[in-house]
Amino acid sequence: MAHLIRPWISYYTKNGKRVPKDTEGAKRVKQRARKWYAAGLPGWPKGRRKPLAADKRVARDMLSKLETREERMRQGLPVEPDSTDANNPVDGLLDEFEKYLKDEGRTGQHIDTTLTRCRKIIAGKAIHSLAELTPAAVLDYLASLRQERNTVDLDKETFTRDELAQLLGVNPRSIPRILKRDGLDGDGKGKKRVYRRAVAEALLERFSRGFGISTTNHYLVAIKSFTRWLVRKKKCLAADPLAGLTKMNAEPDIRIVRRALSAEEFMQFIEATRRGKTLRGLSGADRAVLYQFAARSGLRASEIGSLTPSSFNWDHPSVTVKAAYSKRRRRDEQPLPRETAELMETFVESKPKNKPIWPSGWVQDAAELVREDLAGSGIPYIDEEGRVYDFHALRHQYITALVEAGIHPKEAQELARHSTIDLTMNHYTHLRRVHLHNAVDKLPKLTESHTQQTNAS
Fold first, then answer.
1. CA pair distance 81, 242, nearest whole angstrom
2. Which residues make beta-bridge pairs with 13?
3. Quick one: which of 287, 255, 300 has its CA closest to 393?
4. DSSP string, 214-277
5. How far, in Å, are 102, 123, 195, 410, 415 from residue 182 at the CA level?
6. Are 280 and 265 in contact (CB under 8 A)?
7. Single pTM value for the model
8. Which residue among 69, 95, 226, 362 is least enclosed by CB atoms within 10 Å?
9. For 145-185, what is each residue's pLDDT tens digit?
10. Which residues are bridge partners to 129 per DSSP?
């Protein structure tokens, strides 16, 4: 039940000034808060409080208005934005935002990523209230992410896993994955395993580059989704303070350039995968079907990880991705080639109807799966031009195949589920020199045109 409280506040002083708790000789002071606070309103998280006024009669009136406002919101009735929420602690609102995302049916990965990015911005700029969540603060934090870090002069020849993690500022458990991605390794086994200075220098050079524009754009999208919720759903702000911020052009700062394999290379990759050992709970045969399906459906790893046998329509070959897993946040029905539909119909026959076709634990390691299977096929992960072939490159494989097959660019854009034709044709299509030669060979011969013109005259 809603009520007023005037909580006790503790702080430390020395020589009449407030000081940190661990200051030598500091004395603890306990006193009542100057203001009365609202607590216990229906729908509020446990422990959430809202500062009102120092005068109890005024605070009581404010509490009554708050109760009326919360009731109108529960009934779906319009309410006036409460400008006093600008002084509320951001942490409590983030907890409510998390609950909203769960109620909306967003995936656990989406919720974790969004909240993590929001909290990093808020912690990075020491933002305590909504009034401090300004465009300048957000832009300043994103700029700091893109800044190059100062490199460290190394005075050792070998490093343990924990020492390497401390240098990079990452979790020690992430070191094996980071090393594998960069094609680096250590010496020795188990707890005696060490990493040479050259390995540490190579990793430091990459980590000192700072985040790319594309990554900081993702941070901006996350924090803007939070402020939009504050205006549209929570209705505690009259206007979105970040509405004017837009994503930066990431094209000049592309960190990962992907490629598509030739038809011969792709079949070599599939055959080697089929003979491969079990990885992340998936047999070689399971992964071979997974890669073929990805390269002929264009679905992303997280979308494929959500599929069950009931996601498919065999009469009109297609696969449906639920809105919660689609990048566009809407239900997508993707047509399938008949060959792929026949492959999948056979593959899912023995699968449980309401469970993922491929156990979803592989999704976070999708790029590593492809890297290991490429190694088994003799195809490099990074080619001579520095282009990579990871799981998302299978989507590039799909879109390139559409263009190679002569499908109209507009149809290719629809099948790729892209917002612009530029994204489809310039970022996901990889044509080789042989395709360009074949294209110019389709031009009418000038000698034939000249002969036809002569005969006509």
1. 17
2. 18, 27
3. 300
4. HHHHHHHHHHHHHHHHHHHTS---SS-TTTT------GGG----B----HHHHHHHHHHHHTSP
5. 36, 30, 14, 37, 33
6. no
7. 0.61
8. 95
9. 888 766 666 778 888 888 888 887 778 888 887 887 767 78
10. 89
